[in-house]
Amino acid sequence: MGEISLRRRWDPQVGKEVYEIKLDDEFLMSSLFTVAEVQLAHLALGSLSRTEVDVAVGGLGLGFTASAVLDHPNVRSLVVVEALGEVIDWHQGGLIPAGAGVTSDRRCRLVNGDFFAMLRSGTGPDPAQPGRRFHAIIVDIDHSPRHVLAPSHAEFYLPAGLRRLAEYLHSGGVFALWSNDPPDQEFVAVLAEVFAAAEAEVVRFHNPLQGREAVNTVYVARTPSR
Fold this sequence. Notes:
Blueprint: E1 4-11, E2 16-23, E3 26-30, H1 35-45, E4 53-58, H2 64-70, E5 75-82, H3 85-92, H4 99-104, E6 108-112, H5 115-121, E7 134-139, H6 159-166, E8 169-179, H7 185-194, E9 197-207, E10 212-222
Parallel strand pairs: 4-5, 4-7, 5-6, 7-8
Antiparallel strand pairs: 1-2, 2-3, 8-10, 9-10
């Protein structure tokens, strides 16, 4: 998809070190903006009342979503699928602050693979247990359903692609998706075709670089409960 790079810099405007992952000249993740990545995990898991929850995350990035998942004591296992092996290496090599907690937690396993291709192949998010189902699947890979990093990702956001994902959820399971764009009601309607319930949650946070409020969206959908 391009040249991946990790950058650490001191930002005098906020008075702290900032970690950023870039794909060519495009920013994928920044430690300046983590509120929505953390909320993504909490919105996905907050409604699950089970005492033992199995979770899959598509996209590792700087590790904030994975860390937030592991903060939930009812999480029994976490599989994180990351297409870029360099990102996993950075976490395992201690170059990213969140990596220490993510890689040392026995509940968590990092998998180098194409999340979308794994769904299409029938393997699912866990190649060690093909067809395995989860109580929650969380995805933070593309910028939004309309702004994807690679053309092959676009099909995932259509009914057929979402139905494939739903096959890997238990009854009453939750699918949560991060988006950099405001709520897209057309995509909510697509989710409603596949899932029993779907909604778009607006996450607001302060942007210190622009001195104004910023908005991300978290889509949350649920499979029918038996």
